[in-house]
Amino acid sequence: MNDPLPIGATIGILGGGQLGRMLAVAAARLGLKTCIFEPGGDCPASHVANYHFQADYDDAEALAKFAASVDVITYEFENIPTSALDILEAHKPIHPNRRALATSQDRLTEKTFLQSLGLATAPFANVESDDDMQAAVAEIGTPSILKTRRFGYDGKGQARLKASDDAATAWQSMQDAASVLEGFVDFSHEVSVIGARAQDGAVSCFDPGENIHRDGILHTTTVPARLTPAQRSDAVLIAARIMTELDYVGVMGLELFVTPGGLIVNEIAPRVHNSGHWTQNGCLIDQFEQHIRAVAGWPLGNGARHSDIVMENLIGNDVEQLAQIAQSDTAIHLYGKSDAKPGRKMGHINRIYTKP
Amino acid sequence: MNDPLPIGATIGILGGGQLGRMLAVAAARLGLKTCIFEPGGDCPASHVANYHFQADYDDAEALAKFAASVDVITYEFENIPTSALDILEAHKPIHPNRRALATSQDRLTEKTFLQSLGLATAPFANVESDDDMQAAVAEIGTPSILKTRRFGYDGKGQARLKASDDAATAWQSMQDAASVLEGFVDFSHEVSVIGARAQDGAVSCFDPGENIHRDGILHTTTVPARLTPAQRSDAVLIAARIMTELDYVGVMGLELFVTPGGLIVNEIAPRVHNSGHWTQNGCLIDQFEQHIRAVAGWPLGNGARHSDIVMENLIGNDVEQLAQIAQSDTAIHLYGKSDAKPGRKMGHINRIYTKP
């Protein structure tokens, strides 16, 4: 365990998108400086961070300089090249750790890990060839879904199989990328738990939120989620179990399917998570501050929920409807992106929610 | 009334201290850019703002360039030279307006204005000479307090009179600065109301907070304040009355003394206010977002209070006690100042408060 970082220390953040932006603001609030590593120029995080290293992930010299200039390193996305991590880790601690990153970077590793903890996942089979694909369909059946093991996000790198006839087309669409075939899970809804773990092993989880997706992208998260008390407690215990097993430091997003037979783990994200944005207006300490506290070796904050909230993502030109966004009961969080491309996350709003 | 600023527009902020810093973060959250005008270099607001004009208030060229580069101008402190305002206002709208600024810049103008609205103030008399001083003491009596009419803050520029013998010394300490002698008010405690007024005239006030000072500097603000329902309603109505009369746009801080005979207005601050920092963790929309919304011509947000909070200022080396600051029930707001001089505001904490 490292000593707590002093006030004025610098957090290095890999990635300059909206998650990096909100992490940088949280760090500023805590009197900590931030240095972003991001190849892109006018990126959301650069508007509010103290420093911006604009370089590629294969630029060993820039990575080493970046690492030398910060006190600890964290990240806003999980697809960081291993070669970059090797260089960075030689200089400074990285939180969450390599194992957490490696586990969540690969769907096969992730599901195997979850099963080793006795946690329920969708049935799955590895697919790296035509033969694997045939065997997988025979084992898992249809309907099912083929997903690339790495680099998938927001529904990208996925193909649905309605019947076994779809197998060949689905596998071709992966262009030889190692994949997993996931069996159909008959779930009523999806929830996620945002958990945090400090360097001393203390764990604190936010209240589970209920997620609704549109076109494969998160649309809303509502708290409280529809869960029985037992499910709510299970959800939090699963998150704590995973973080403790991984000796995790920081905030983790955990997606769960709610089924009549119990909770099924869908996915781990080793970072702050879109489905935790409601915490900015629902809790004393939000997921971004919680992550920075953990990474800095500070004690976790109180994440108890004080309000019922619906978080809604603003996608593409949603953001142009200012009159609809800037309403009284709505806290606004925009990312400073100038170009509202279709499907692009431009911001989100947190609305106070009165139970019907 | 101006059209609402579009997302991506730039707010110019005069002053680069902690209030400017927190305004800049609120603006970033709303997808607006900020440009700070501040003579100092490594100032708190510059860490999070998009742009920083580092120039003096008598640099006409820099002021004009600054005004040309922004869409609207606001400020974090009231002592802006009139000559600077003349240059700025020729280019872009300034909120709150000149009258609000002029009224609050001078204690005599302020008290005269308040009386014209039928609001109660401490008894006062103008002092610009030895003769004025003698007449003032004869009229107001002692105990009383002599305050410079302009440029006073955090207890600076004040001298107490216990008896009429103190008059000459008190007046000498003002070094010929025009002053007012204020009579003693027998108040039980001080509260403040943070009000906001939008460009369309809509008014929204935060719940009054109760202030405790130490060494002339705000120490804590606690919500809810000890007030009867009638006093609470009076406090909010007084704030609304003042803002409407001044055709005010933005957030205003209003300090009130609570006496057995009713509320007495102490002071107006035409800006976000230290005693409103609790709103960052007590409300969906805080005073900083409320101010930016108003200045941008957007509708005000919902400032209803969801939690009981104690805000505590961190002064001088208070900020070095990280273990005492970074507790679970404490939201931390530090200003990024590197030099913890005695009496300097370094940050504040908002603590969840459970009524005894």
Summarize the helix and strand pattern of chain A as letters.
EHEEHEHHHEHEEHEEEEEHEEHHEHEE
Number of strands of chain A: 17
Shape of chain A: globular
The H-level CATH homologous superfamily of the largest domain in chain A, spelled out, is ATP-grasp fold, B domain
Radius of gyration of chain A: 20 Å
Any idea how many domains of chain A? 3
Major sheet summary line of chain A? 9 strands, antiparallel
Portion of residues in beta strands of chain A equals 25-35%
Description:
The structure is a homodimer of 356-residue chains. The first copy, chain A, is α+β, with helices and mostly antiparallel strands. The first copy, chain A, has 3 domains: 10-94, 3-Layer(aba) Sandwich (Rossmann fold); 123-183, ATP-grasp fold, A domain (Dna Ligase, domain 1, 2-Layer Sandwich), CATH 3.30.1490; 189-352, D-amino Acid Aminotransferase, Chain A, domain 1. Chain A has 11 helices and 17 strands. The first copy, chain A, has helices at residues 18-29, 60-69, 82-91, 98-105, 107-116, 130-140, 167-173, 229-245, 279-282, 287-295, 322-325; strands at residues 10-14, 33-37, 51-53, 72-75, 124-127, 144-148, 158-161, 179-183, 189-197, 203-205, 209-214, 217-223, 250-259, 262-269, 309-315, 330-334, 345-352. In chain A, the strands form 3 sheets. In chain A, strands 9, 10, 11, 12, 13, 14, 15, 16 and 17 form a 9-stranded antiparallel beta sheet that branches. Chain A has a 4-stranded parallel beta sheet with strand order 3-2-1-4, with helices on both faces. In chain A, strands 5-8-6-7 form a 4-stranded antiparallel beta sheet, with helices on both faces. In chain A, a hairpin with a 2-residue loop joins strand 13 and strand 14 (262-269). In chain A, helix 1 crosses helix 10 (287-295), helix 2 (60-69) runs parallel beside helix 3 (82-91) and helix 4 (98-105) packs across helix 5 (107-116). Chain A binds chain B through residues 4, 6-8, 21, 25, 28-31, 33, 47-48, 50, 281, 284-285, 289, 293, 298-302, 306-307, 319-320, 322, 326-336, 338, 347, 350, 352, and chain B through 4, 6-8, 21, 25, 28-31, 33, 47-48, 50, 281, 284-285, 289, 293, 298-302, 306-307, 319-320, 322, 326-336, 338, 347, 350, 352.
